[in-house]
Amino acid sequence: MIIHNVKSGETLTDVAACYGISPIKLAENNGLSQKSALIEGEELLILQPTRSTNAKVGESLDDIARRFGVRESTLLGINPELCGSGRLYAGQPIAVKYGQPLYGLGIGNGYYYRGCSREALMRALPYLNYVTVSGAVGRGGRVNMLFDDTEVVSLARAAGKLPMLRLWLGDEDASHREATIKSALLIASARGYHGLTLAGEVGTGEESKATLSMAKEASAECGLSLFGECDVSRVRDGVDIPDVTVLTYDKIHFEKIPGFDEGERVEFTRFAERHDAVRAFIDLSPFALISGKYITKDEARYAVLRGGGSIHESGCESYAVASVGKGRRERLYIWETMKNTRKKLELLSELGYYGISFDIARAPIYDLLMFRVMFSDGIGMRGDVSP
């Protein structure tokens, strides 16, 4: 796996020729079309298969999987463009293997939000063990469901994934939290969920401990798993955490954050030293920042390309800075680099973290491919894969 920085005037064909790979696969692995123009300084994920093939006339993905003795889900995980594509065309390049994964097993947890398409879900399934459905909000001791979750739960179960119901507590009053959580657990059990994920504030200090203690006891009584979310920089000694925790790292002010070694490495190492890292996911951010507002990294790239902008040295390998316009009209787009994501993924092995968490609709395909190439999947595991 190589991360290539585009030079002035380079095209996809030029880059592909440098590494002896198909320009079609290069484009697909980076979420681009074959006609996409490149931006000087942007990163491209270069994957060189150790085993590949070209589809024969009338051949299906299942045919190729059987021909090489691999699972169809494995092929989908390293050829994401094939999800939902139906019949293959003759000569279509397909990667069969990208060498031996370096870091062992990696568990995936994907977030499904209202408006997420079925296509996006199906594309993400090969990377997932858990599907966290952000479908419930607590209000006044009651649970409001935000959308019909029937299809996503059904699709997750049919694919052998474990669906989790995400409950947003927000500013729910402490006096209502117990009733809200118990109600959500009953809903989760009735609707076929594997467990409950608590999101938002659950209180502070002793109040938080009491809430989590109650939630753990109640979820155990229902036979459900209990997940939670928190910013890794806010987890302190003595703070109680759920059975499994999704750890985020706040990058709302990208231009002010330290580099990876002084920032994320410090925070995730500190957590691993004080808590059980095997019970935690590291969240991958899909966002870019512009004028204090979030857009996706893919949207930022297209905006910079349309505006004739460029990516320039930020002085920090953790994030890329692209500019469009000059002077007062200059617009800066800032996002996490592939190099930073790769370093974050390496922490899974180095510090013993459980796996990654990502936004199903917004995660760029190259982040998921890096994960799959670096880690073997947990597809086919039966029952609870919790540590």
Task: Record keyword descriptors for this entry.
18 strands, TIM Barrel, alpha/beta, 387 residues, globular, Membrane-bound Lytic Murein Transglycosylase D, Chain A
Plain-language structure description:
- This protein is an alpha/beta fold and 387 residues long.
- It has 2 domains: 2-97, LysM domain (Membrane-bound Lytic Murein Transglycosylase D, Chain A); 107-290 and 332-374, TIM Barrel, CATH 3.20.20.80.
- Helices cover 33% and strands 24% of the residues.
- It is built from 12 helices and 18 strands.
- It has helices spanning 12-19, 23-29, 61-68, 72-78, 118-124, 150-158, 174-190, 205-222, 264-274, 297-306, 338-351, 365-374, and strands spanning 2-5, 43-46, 51-54, 93-97, 107-112, 130-139, 142-145, 162-168, 195-199, 225-231, 244-248, 280-283, 287-290, 293-296, 310-312, 319-324, 331-336, 355-359.
- An 8-stranded parallel barrel has the order 5-6-8-9-10-11-12-18, surrounded by 4 helices. The protein has a 5-stranded antiparallel beta sheet with strand order 14-13-17-16-15. A two-stranded antiparallel sheet has the order 1-2.
- Helix 7 packs parallel to helix 8 and helix 11 (338-351) packs parallel to helix 12.
- The radius of gyration is 22 Å and the shape is globular.
- The protein starts with a strand and ends in a 13-residue tail after the last helix.
